[in-house]
Design goal:
By secondary structure, the protein is α+β, with helices and mostly antiparallel strands. Helices cover 20% and strands 26% of the residues. The strands form four sheets. It has an eight-stranded mixed sheet. Strands 2-3-4-9 form a four-stranded antiparallel sheet, with no helix packed on it. A four-stranded antiparallel sheet has the order 5-6-7-8, with no helix packed on it.
């Protein structure tokens, strides 16, 4: 049982907090690319900071503090121009680096604008998503997870704001037994009450199978969750599902025909953005102009999501790593409540082995250029990432 002090240390993510400082050493998603196609300016809240994401007229991205440095008007109402974002109130113009380029109300020849710089953060696009880094320099590489760099997929992104802290969401992701109960028994119970054909379709296509065994293995970048439904040859047991510290999990199906990645982005101390990006590989693929997305911004879950999240024992996709992923040992497997304890321990020590031994150590994300050697892990050619494994 955590004390109140321990709980706050692990879950408060604002500037200057231990977990907030640690989270700022990682890239986090802030939007889907398609959102800025609808509107080139978007309000963003990440790690308890109110920000504004924009794309200027030249196509360049920027992420600034929401409040204008002049009179603190919201830049969410700003006007994108060739060189940046212009405040709607008095017209101050900021570029993507946060420098003020123009102040229409100042006298001719004034250099006051040169003294003004607002908070600005790096942003990058990958796989139809936009990521930001809020931490200290040097800026690490953006992790190129395999489902984000496949070039032969049809993709889709969905997001939900959940009214709880980030660690509660990660606890849920690392708890495989809830899938059997919540996504299996409870969904079946609800669909029986509703009547109609949905129940039979759910039981035939989506209902998760009972798990015989569950275990969790630490590896260099996080935790691998394994569960057995039939025997030890199950993909879900042999390979497992890796979760990368602090807030990323990979899911999928055997054969590499599809894959999904989940990002858990801490909005503030009590709200979390749950982002699911799905990619399906097809041999005959028409060009996808943009990756569709849908968002449920209400602070609650639907009891019956449009696509049930239960698995049918097919296993989960693997992540790319040059290091050998540990195989299940003969030690007793953990009970389901131990997964969160493992994540809490990683958080307390500042992450995984390569990330240092305390919350102030800068994480070595250069190692996150990850690859799956197909021969090692029995993964078909369809699951190999964009960079060929040796």
């Amino acid at each position: 049982m955590l004390t109140a002090e321990q709980n706050e240390k692990l879950t408060l993510v604002g500037p200057g907090t231990p977990m907030g400082n640690l989270m700022r050493c990682y890239w986090h998603p802030v939007a889907a690319t398609v959102e800025l196609e609808r509107n080139p300016v978007k309000a963003v809240k990440l790690l308890a900071e109110s920000l504004v994401l924009f794309r200027d007229k030249r196509g360049h991205l920027g992420l600034l503090a929401e409040a204008c440095a002049h009179r603190r008007a919201s830049l969410v109402y700003g006007i994108p121009e060739n060189e940046g974002l212009r405040c709607a109130y008095h017209g101050w113009l900021y570029n993507a680096e946060g420098r003020c380029l123009d102040q229409p109300g100042e006298p001719a020849g004034s250099t006051f604008k040169n003294q003004i710089k607002t908070t600005a953060y790096p942003v990058q696009e990958l796989g139809g998503l936009i990521f930001s880094y809020l931490g200290p320099e040097p800026v690490p590489l953006l992790p190129r997870y395999n489902v984000l760099v496949w070039d032969d997929v049809a993709g889709e992104t969905n997001g939900t704001v959940i009214p709880c802290n980030w660690l509660q969401v990660m606890e849920n992701l690392l708890d495989p037994l809830h899938v059997e109960c919540l996504h299996g028994r409870y969904f079946t119970y609800v669909l029986k009450g509703k009547g109609g054909d949905q129940l039979q379709e759910f039981l035939a296509r989506h209902a998760p199978s009972p798990m015989k065994k569950v275990r969790f293995d630490l590896f260099e970048h996080g935790i691998i969750e394994r569960h057995m439904i039939n025997n030890e040859e199950d993909e879900s047991w042999r390979t497992g599902a890796p979760s990368f510290f602090p807030t990323t999990s990979l899911l999928g199906s055997p054969g590499g025909k599809s894959g999904s990645i989940i990002f858990v982005a801490p909005i503030d101390d009590t709200h979390t953005w749950f982002l699911l990006h799905m990619a399906s590989r097809v041999s005959q693929l028409a060009a996808q102009e943009s990756i569709p997305s849908s968002w449920d911004v209400r602070s609650r879950h639907h009891p019956l999501p449009r696509a049930p999240l239960g698995t049918n024992g097919a296993g989960r996709a693997r992540r790319r790593t040059d290091e050998r992923i540990p195989r299940p040992s003969q030690e007793p497997y953990y009970r389901s409540s131990r997964d969160n304890a493992g994540w809490e321990n990683l958080a307390r020590t500042g992450g995984c082995v390569s990330h240092g031994s305390n919350l102030d150590i800068y994480p070595d994300l250069l190692k996150y250029e990850l690859r799956i050697p197909a021969a090692k892990f029995g993964i078909g050619a369809a699951l190999r990432p964009g960079v060929e494994a040796p």
